Amino acid sequence: MCIRDRAYTYWVVQKYIEKPLLYKRRKFDIRVWALITSNNELFYYRQGYLRTSSEEYTLDTKQNYVHLTNNCLQQHGKKYSLHEVGNTISFEIFQNYLNEVYAGLGVDVERHLVGRMKDLMIDSFLSVREFLNPRKRKNSFELLGFDFLIDEDFRVWLIEVNINPYLGIPNKFIEGLLPKMLNDMCELVLDSHFKPVNEIPKWDIKSQFELLYSSKQKVNQRREFGCGLYPLKKMDIAPKQNEPFDANPSKEPIIKIKEEIQACLLYTSPSPRDSCASRMPSSACKKKKKKK
What we know:
Helix content is 27%, strand content 18%.
């Protein structure tokens, strides 16, 4: 299709992140729910989950079951639910994995990853809030699904925002999580206007929706810009995937890597530090030929 044939078409170009953090050698992304109200309020649901791929990650293939973690696609694969039921795991299981594989780093999902997710959610909301309710309808709301990817340096990247997030039940974990989220949402947006007639289940914990932004209530949890781009200061060297991290590596590999990076900077155009292309493989470094 020729681009000129669609004069008013919008295009989004994204750089593929070649070195994502892996879960047991497979790619994953993180889905979290958000709620937007007609009062220009943004809520974040604290209980998110990981969506895993069915095949081991490699750049040697373009197979969708390797690179795409969407449930609507993975459920049609032959290896769906082979590793995890419904290709879905909780933050708790993910944290246990990080504690085991990256024990030397002390990675904490809530402290090192969720904060950056909240920042990106607020940024996304503020960028479009004036277009969200053009007819100024009262008592309206929207449930969104934010998808994030974590790279090898534990940096958080926003993939997309879904206006019709998947609400299926692929396993027991989601079976317990989804009704609680929907009940919390209804309590937030409906109960103040329509009191429940029938008795509703009594949950053991309070609502998991957290207010991130509200101009009316003067709430804005956005941190300083630049905060959390590199959540771990120890990440002078990215850990090897699926291998325990050595908290005290020898200095020799560091010097060698720094020399390679300096060579790259001399003969390649610079890119922003927070770009996913900023960590170039040594094979991309080419020595400049001398002019004869």
